[in-house]
Automatic annotation (TrEMBL):
It comes from Dunaliella tertiolecta. Its main location: nucleus. Keywords: Activator, Nucleus, Transcription, Transcription regulation. The keyword Acyltransferase does not apply. Belongs to the Mediator complex subunit 31 family. This is Mediator of RNA polymerase II transcription subunit 31. Component of the Mediator complex. Pfam families: Med31. InterPro entries: Med31_sf, Mediator_Med31. The lineage of its organism: Eukaryota, Viridiplantae, Chlorophyta, core chlorophytes, Chlorophyceae. The keyword Transcription regulation applies. One of its GO terms (cellular component) is mediator complex.
């Protein structure tokens, strides 16, 4: 799917993938049992096409791809439901941004 072919779908999927960069949103999805729905989990797998450079270039929050990859793991989908895990990830993400994307 190229952006010009199905613009509405492209934008909807782009916005959804970018939402995956928000740990609290992932927690909300887990708390509301979205990750227990096989169709939703399959949709997350389908969205991996965003890792291709021709699509990834449209992302404003490319670390959303990191979370999309983590969401392929049943263990991560279970753990992100815990508020302590969500807060830890959120804090680490903030620190990464705070230091200009440099670790350490």
């Amino acid at each position: 799917m190229d952006p010009p072919e199905d613009g509405e779908r492209f934008v909807a999927e782009l916005e959804f993938v970018q939402c995956l960069s928000a740990p609290h949103y992932l927690n909300w999805l887990a708390q509301n049992r979205y990750f227990e729905d096989p169709a939703f989990v399959s949709y997350l797998e389908y969205l991996l096409y965003w890792k291709e450079p021709k699509y990834a270039k449209y992302l404003q929050y490319p670390h959303a791809l990191f979370f999309l990859e983590l969401l392929q793991s049943p263990e991560f989908r279970k753990e992100i439901a815990r508020s302590t895990v969500t807060e830890f990830i959120h804090t680490q993400q903030f620190r990464f941004w705070q230091h200009g994307g440099k670790s350490g």
